[in-house]
Amino acid sequence: MDAFDLISEDYDRWYDEPEGRAAFVAELACLRSLMGETQGEWLEVGVGTGRFAQGLGVRTGIDPSRPMLDIAARRGIRTVQGIAEALPFAPQSFDGVLLALTLCFVRDVRKALAECARVLRPVGRLLVGIVPAAGPWGRAYARLAAEGHPVYSLARFLTPEEVMERAADAGLAPVGASSTLFWEPGESPDQVPRVEAGLNPQAGFVAILFEKPGATVAANGV
Questions:
Q1: Phi-psi region of 24 (alpha: psi -120 to 50; beta: other; left: phi over 0)
Q2: Predicted confidence (pLDDT) per residue in 170-206, tens digit
Q3: Which residues, at least 6 apart from 108, have a Cβ–Cβ distance to it below 8 Å?
Q4: pTM
Q5: Beta-bridge partner residues of 177
Q6: How far lies 13's CA from each of 17, 20, 144, in Å?
Q7: Which of 86, 90, 151, 162 is 20 to 30 A off residue 107, Cα-Cα?
Q8: What is the per-residue pLDDT for 217?
Q9: pLDDT per residue over 73-88, tens digit each?
Q10: DSSP 214
């Protein structure tokens, strides 16, 4: 049984609460600042309940948790059950892959990123969103993990540098980055989502865009 199976409804419901809703709006804006308009066929790896896929126009999602996928399917996502380290898709199947809040939960980050690179078409794009380990939200979640939280105790939060190092091993080059969530968990959130270009060490969420070799590189704050 996947760790998220028993909490899928509660997990999804958090995004309808004031703090969760504010965080989601900011994270979605951060991802969209790099992704732009979705072009071609995209896959979300670790689609969860499908909120990010739905918000960004990603039509296909994969996740190990069947209850989470059931919620995603109700949002109109074509769902596939599976894990990031063994994607059940042929090479060069997608123009883009989204990893939003997923890498901290995969067992083998290098293998997961290598799989994402494998299923990308030439000049494909990988968009990664993470809670940085040293940011305010990463530190808060680490405290919850130390207290035995059923989900965050399973997570290993990464730094942006670690993500870029492992992506480089998979043959992916960073071409842009954005940052958001500049308030501590439990504080009053920004009324209007604040998204900054580049990697801000004070941010609770960062997004990094990667491309396969051969793509036109136009660096944006990486």
A1: alpha
A2: 999 999 999 999 999 888 887 888 999 999 999 999 9
A3: 85
A4: 0.92
A5: 208
A6: 7, 9, 19
A7: 90
A8: 43
A9: 999 999 999 999 999 9
A10: T
Max Cα separation, the chain?
Answer: 46
Say how far apart CA 186 and CA 215 lie, in whole Å: 41
Please give the DSSP secondary-structure letter assigned to residue 41.
-
Read off the pLDDT of each residue in 118-144 and give the average, rounded to a whole number.
95
- Residue 67 to residue 54: CA distance in whole angstroms: 17
Residues 141, 195 contacting (CB under 8 angstroms): no
Tell me which amino acid residue 209 is: L
Tell me how far apart the alpha carbons of residues 75 and 133 are, in angstroms, rounded to a whole number: 30
Which phi and psi (to 5°) does residue 87 adopt? -70, 130
Tokens 């009324």 -> residue: 191
pLDDT band at 134 (very low <50, low <70, confident <90, very high): very high
Q: Which of 139, 145, 148 is nearest to 201 (CA)?
A: 139
Q: What is d(CA 17, CA 200) in angstroms, rounded to the nearest whole number?
A: 26
Task: Please indicate whether residue 39 or residue 40 has the higher confidence score (pLDDT).
Answer: 40
Q: Is the pLDDT assigned to residue 216 strictly greater than 70?
A: no
With tokens 């951060």, the residue in question is: 30
Sequential DSSP letters for 140-192: HHHHHHHTT-TTGGG-----HHHHHHHHHHTT-EEEEEEEE--S-TTSPPPSS
Q: Rounded to an integer, what distance in angstroms lies between the CA atom of residue 33 and that of residue 130? A: 15
